[in-house]
Design a protein that fits this description.
Enolase-like, domain 1, seven-stranded mixed β-sheet, alpha/beta, FAD/NAD(P)-binding domain
């Protein structure tokens, strides 16, 4: 038996790395975790958690206006202070950073606050120059925002910097059409910024149900968000007054105060030293792994966004748990990637699980589609015309539910329970046999026609 400094060395203390480290340590392994920035990773420090807190804050823009119809004397000059929300959110991030640190340390794992790179199949080199050895190395370095290479790209920001803005821009251009772009478009719009979203194609939220994403486009446009499609950057020029002049293909130039890139995320493998251990990666820089998270080097593994399988925090956590269970808990486990629910915290939000209508027709040919297109009760009294849409896609012969896709208030909260039914392979009859919970938006799921 080789004499190593550690049984397991984890590079990256995000969601996947933290779960793998603390569970492995709880099983009795000697574990070290290297983190060059802050414990918690993208989700906790600069992703879904602070973003969701900003989304809660943004909701008050419409809620306060709606409140007047419900009898509340909300003043017309109800002001919003960005700095207050920003600082409160960052304080919560600080708390979570400490909580994650405590969680790892209380499990018995050691945290090393340095950058770590691969020096060999069993060797890790720290930024201080120290070399440590481990029987197994787990890479959980996540992903980072992609920045297009165009003249003046240095003048733009990414979602990382959006949480730290000194002030809100009066005019912001967001590049991209995925979930990050649409979420921040809704956020900045509700905070009072004029938002222009540009995309290389004319499709937003590729991979989501076509009807649902078209509904979001329609609602977003009605709210005042501007979309420019078939547009690619030609350049960004900073002007004397600090504003940015953006030139793009297919459209006139536009003057804005901020440009935000939301054009996808790329795996954090640059300069990691993968070649020193023969670890293979694909054309996007993602580490290629098997079902047990093992790379092309037998002693090196990877979980989370750095593998570019499914870039979702709960998936990274499951992969970290499966790794620990398999190699230190004597419970061989592999992650099931089928029927993973997903949400876009746009305004209004989207949620879906299983096959979209298009994907279901392509796979099964004949399908049945049930839906409800309705105006939520709160919107009716508030005088808001915004409509919700729920869709259920079923296999034609068996009525087994293949997918559920929704847009409307609180749909991520509603879908989580419904996703269990889809994962379990239930049929529409099971929903039909369930008594509606009235009055609620969720009851539409058992009343679909």
């Amino acid at each position: 038996m080789a004499d190593y400094d550690y049984d397991l060395f984890v590079i990256g203390a995000g969601s996947g790395g933290t779960r793998a480290a603390r569970v492995s340590a709880a099983y009795g392994a000697r574990v070290a975790v290297a983190e060059e920035y802050r414990v918690g990773g993208t989700c906790v420090i600069r992703g879904c958690v602070p973003k969701k807190l900003l989304i809660y804050g943004a909701h008050f823009a419409e809620d306060l206006r709606d409140a007047r119809k419900f009898g509340w004397a909300v003043p017309d000059d109800c002001a919003f202070d960005w700095a207050t929300l920003r600082d409160n959110v960052l304080s919560e991030v600080d708390r979570l950073n400490k909580a994650y640190t405590t969680t790892i340390e209380s499990s018995g794992a050691e945290i090393i606050h340095e950058r770590a790179t691969i020096a060999g199949p069993h060797e890790v080199k720290l930024a201080s120059g120290r070399i440590v050895t481990a029987e197994r190395i787990l890479i959980a370095t996540g992903a980072t925002p992609h920045v297009p290479s165009c003249p003046g790209h240095k003048h733009g920001i990414t979602s990382n910097e959006a949480f730290h803005l000194d002030s809100l821009p009066k005019r912001i251009l967001i590049a991209g059409a995925g979930y990050i772009a649409n979420e921040f478009a809704g956020l900045f719009h509700q905070f009072g910024s004029h938002v222009t979203l540009i995309n290389r194609t004319d499709v937003i939220l590729r991979g989501y149900d076509e009807q649902v994403r078209d509904r979001l486009l329609q609602i977003s446009t009605m709210k005042g968000i501007e979309f420019r499609f078939h547009a690619e950057f030609r350049g960004i020029e900073k002007q004397a007054d600090g504003s940015l002049m953006v030139e793009m293909t297919g459209h006139d130039p536009i003057e804005v105060d901020c440009v935000m890139f939301a054009t996808g995320r790329v795996p954090n493998t640059g300069g990691l030293g993968l070649e020193n251990a023969g670890v293979e990666w694909d054309e996007k820089g993602a580490i290629t792994v098997d079902a047990d998270n093992r790379s092309s080097c037998d002693s090196i593994f990877a979980v989370g966004d750095v593998t570019n399988r499914v870039q979702l925090t709960p998936v990274a956590i499951r992969e970290g748990q499966a790794f620990a269970d398999t190699f230190y808990g004597n419970k061989p486990t592999q992650v099931d990637y089928d029927c993973i629910p997903a949400a876009v915290f746009s305004h209004p939000p989207i949620a879906g699980v299983g096959l979209t209508e298009g994907a279901a027709r392509e796979k099964f040919g004949s399908v049945k589609v049930y839906q409800s297109d309705f105006r939520p009760m709160k919107n009716v009294l508030a005088g808001r015309n915004e409509r919700a849409l729920y869709k259920m896609i079923c296999e034609a012969n068996t009525d087994r539910i293949l997918g559920l896709h929704m847009i409307g208030p609180d749909v991520p909260e509603i879908l989580q329970s419904a996703a269990v039914a889809v994962k379990a392979g239930l049929t529409k009859a099971a929903f039909d046999a369930t008594v509606a919970l009235h009055p609620s938006m969720a009851e539409e799921l058992v009343l679909l026609k």
